[in-house]
Design brief:
- By secondary structure, the protein is α+β, with helices and mostly antiparallel strands.
- The protein has a domain at about 20-30 and about 40-60 and about 70-84.
- It is about 40% helix and about 10% strand.
- The chain starts with a helix and ends with a helix.
Length: about 80
């Protein structure tokens, strides 16, 4: 998301929260006969309940602008996620 899309307009309070949906992408890719995975690509998946709780917290809280990304506790190489 570019900064211009996240910039507050006319002084309206805002919060920006990015959440990746890697599982949907990996599920779609796993149906292909061959999947090319660039070396070194890693992901840090997070439980959807944790993302939902954080989004609710941000929604009910004060405008905070760009907030830190959320990620799970473990980093996985993309090839391991595809294999699983």
């Amino acid at each position: 998301m570019s900064d211009s899309l996240c910039a507050p307009a006319a002084g309206i309070p805002w919060v920006a929260r990015r959440a990746g949906f890697i599982l949907m992408m990996l599920r779609a890719m796993s149906k292909l006969p061959v999947v090319l995975v660039p070396a070194g690509i890693r992901f840090q998946p997070v439980e959807t309940d944790e993302v939902a709780a954080r989004l609710a917290e941000l929604t009910l809280g004060s405008p905070a602008g760009q907030v830190p990304d959320i990620a799970g506790p473990k980093v996985y190489p993309a090839v391991d996620l595809l294999r699983s």
